Amino acid sequence: KAGVTQTPRYLIKTRGQQVTLSCSPISGHRSVSWYQQTPGQGLQFLFEYFSETQRNKGNFPGRFSGRQFSNSRSEMNVSTLELGDSALYLCASSLDRGLGSPLHFGNGTRLTVT
Amino acid sequence: EDQVTQSPEALRLQEGESSSLNCSYTVSGLRGLFWYRQDPGKGPEFLFTLYSAGEEKEKERLKATLTKKESFLHITAPKPEDSATYLCAAPPQGGSEKLVFGKGTKLTVNP
Q1: Are B105 and B6 in contact (CB under 8 A)?
Q2: B100: chain A residues, CB-CB within 8 Å
Q3: Residues of B in contact with A107 (CB under 8 A)
Q4: Cα distance from B25 to chain A (closest Cα, Å)?
Q5: pLDDT tens digits for A76-113?
């Protein structure tokens, strides 16, 4: 069974630009969560989508947004990039929203903002 | 604020030298405690879920235990391939299903 696929693996952008990251969950998984990982803050929750609806949102500014499609694939968008947005962005899928369904992570998109 | 704290930040062991990693949490009414392993350049890989104090789970050289205030990941006779960052996480109060992660323990096992 294919794992969670994130594209692209690496991105270099300039301050002020916007970026879109893509995530394909494990087949059959309906919940998709996004996390930002930095050396200083560790893993921080961005948002969770289930059935094309945002169910939870972390403490990030409105420049961070996302969506989920009917096939459970998800995208996240960051507008007006800042240097501090440089991070590893991780997508995780789970069968459903319950705690009994563990998160399965992709290998992330490494975003560098210059 | 719900917090998950891991210690130590880094741990170096010789192959075969057993030790434990600690995860303490301030979430009241804990609904689950999760352990993940993360290798460099990769996403976290799920290891265990523990739901109640006294529960234990094992996988190869790893055993996770849970008390009312903390969890331990015991590593018995580690091998170099056990080198990784180990993360623990818990859902916050309030019923949200998102996970709050600790900052991890970076384990290095020398041959």
Answers
A1: yes
A2: 45
A3: 41-43
A4: 16
A5: 999 999 999 999 999 999 998 877 788 999 999 999 99
Sign of CA dihedral B24, B99, A36, A3: positive
C-alpha torsion sign, points B40, B44, B49, B53 = positive
Q: Do B97 and A45 touch (CB under 8 A)?
A: no
CA distance linking residue B72 with residue B51, whole number of Å: 14
Of residues B32, B42, B87, nearest to A99 (C-beta): B32
B99 contacts A47 by C-beta, under 8 angstroms: no
DSSP track, B45-108: EEEEEE-STT-EEEETTEEEEE-SSEEEEEE-S--GGG-EEEEEEEPPTTS----EEP--EEEE
pLDDT digits (tens, 9 = 90+) for B25-65: 887 778 889 999 999 999 999 999 999 999 999 999 999 99
β-pairing, A10-13 with A19-24?
A: unpaired
Q: Inform me whether the pLDDT recorded for B75 exceeds 90.
A: yes
In the block, tokens 């235990």 appear at B65
Burial label, A91 (beta-carbon count in 10 A; 0-12, 13-18, 19+):
buried
Nearest-Cα distance to chain A for B45, in Å, is 7
